[in-house]
Every structure is written in C-alpha cells, then in structure tokens.
Amino acid sequence: MNVILLGAPGAGKGTQAAKMVQTFGLPHISTGDIFRKAVADGTPLGLEAKRYMDAGDLVPDEVTIGIVKERLAQPDCAEGFILDGFPRTVPQADALNAALTSMGTALDAVILVDVPREALVERLTARRQCRACGKIYNVMGDMPADAAVCDECGGEVYQRADDTVETVTNRLDVYDRNTMPLVEYYRERGLLKAVDGARDVDAVFEDVAAVVRGGQRG
Ligand code: AMP
After folding, report:
1. Residue 78: CATH number of its domain
2. What is the per-residue pLDDT across 3-28, written as a single tens digit (0 to 9) for each?
3. Which residue minimizes the CA distance to atom 19 of ligand 1?
4. Is 86 part of a structural domain of the chain?
C-alpha cells in the first residue's frame, strides 16, 4: 500500500502515521523528520534546510524531491510506504508520480486529514515532541509523567522551534498557498480520501485504517 498523508501542519499526520506503522508495519517517511535529523546532525543538507524551516518556509523542491527519491529506493519501501509531509507542492507531486512510474508502482490512496484552520494554531503551539524518537505530546493534556522526559524512550521532550505562534501563522499560509491545490490534484485523479481530523486520535485512526484496509493489494 503506497499512501500519502495530506493535511495542514498540526492536523495530526505524524500521530496517525505512528499508529499506521504499529498496525500495518509500513515504513513512515516524514520529510520534516528527515530535515530535523539533518539539522541535528549538522550535515550540509541540515544547514541548508534550517533557514527555511526556522522561517516556516518550504525547503526548495529540488532538494526535497531528491531526498524522497533516495528514500523510496530503499528496500523497505518495496511493499509500500506512508509519506507524511510530502508532497507539499504540485511540482513535488508530479515528481513523485514520475518516480513511482519509473519504479513500476503507483499511489494507492491520499488520505486528507482535515482540520479547520482555527483549531490548528492552538494545536501547534501546544505541541511538544521527543527529540529522540519523535513521539508527539500536547501540553493541553497529553504529556509524559516528567514533562521533559519521553515516556517511551527517555529522550528529551521539547517544543519545535517552528511551533511558536510567529512561525505557525506563516506555515499555515504556506500550506494554503502551496499545498491546498494538491487536494484538487488528487481528487481529480480519484485518489483522495478525506477523514475528519477534528476528533480524538483513535476515532480518526479508525477511518484512516479503513482506507488502508480497503486499498491493500492482494
Ligand atoms: P513538518 O514536520 O512536516 O511540519 O516539516 C517541517 C518543515 O520542514 C517545514 O515547515 C518545511 O520547512 C520543511 N519541509 C518538510 N517537508 C517538506 C516538503 N515536502 N517540501 C518542502 N519543505 C518541507
């Protein structure tokens, strides 16, 4: 099953992807996580990506597309994958189609995790994340026993630099401008499955899992 999780920053894509990994064992490819790791490791990619990320802007398409193509060529993607945070622009979506075609495969579904914009600012500024394993927490009611220490792995729980009020507004504007057109793009291609993301995590996951089960091959 080759699936994209589409949705605004804060819609819950990462949380749903983590549950999909547990349930379906598909590899989770998050371009945001790849960039954050590169920043933490201080690689040339990280140095380039950081200035865009800190401002809430998109990393240039040619950089992002190259990274995803490399990742999709890894053997663990042969049976399927979950793309989270990619594509975010029409050129990225076109490049993904071309890459999958040349690999002899195609997308099975694009799941839109739909959350009204009003709810997103609140969610994003309340979000905390484990620096080590990426687990997502929320100060409004889902924090580890010790607020700074991840329950799962003992890693440091922190607030992403781009989850501050100032950057969040730009990220949502960037989403509206660059990524929203992909909703129509995939609807026209008969791939779009919208789920109501403004519910609790498990209710959203029921719908997400139903899409995956419905689209599994063989
Ligand atoms: P995310 O964790 O998906 O919210 O991504 C964090 C940041 O990484 C974004 O605000 C962008 O600066 C960058 N980024 C992640 N995915 C992409 C993408 N597909 N295209 C361009 N930039 C991206």
Report:
1. 3.40.50.300
2. 999 999 999 999 999 999 999 999 99
3. 86
4. yes
Name residues whose C-beta falls within 8 Å of residue 202's C-beta, 6 or more positions apart in sequence: none
Cite the DSSP H helix spans in 25-175.
31-41, 44-55, 61-72, 90-102, 117-126, 165-174
- The residue whose two tokens read 């500024």 is 125
HSE-CB for 73 with a 13 A CA cutoff: 8
Asked, for residue 49, whether it belongs to a domain, the answer is yes
In a domain, 155, yes or no: no
Token digits of residue 128? 């905390």
- Domain-embedded: residue 81: yes
Torsion from C-alpha of 43, 48, 53, 55, nearest 10 degrees: 140
36 included as an active-site residue: no
Tens digits of residue pLDDT in 153-186 = 999 999 998 999 889 999 999 999 999 999 999 9
Number of domains in the chain: 1
Contacts of 185 (CB under 8 A, 6+ apart): 90, 93
- Indicate the SS3 state at residue 217: coil
Which residue among the candidates 36, 123, 127, 135 is catalytic per the annotation? 127
Tokens of 150: 């991840």
Told to judge if 128 belongs to the known catalytic residues of this protein, a careful annotator would answer no
What residue numbers bound the domain in which 16 lies? 2-116+179-215
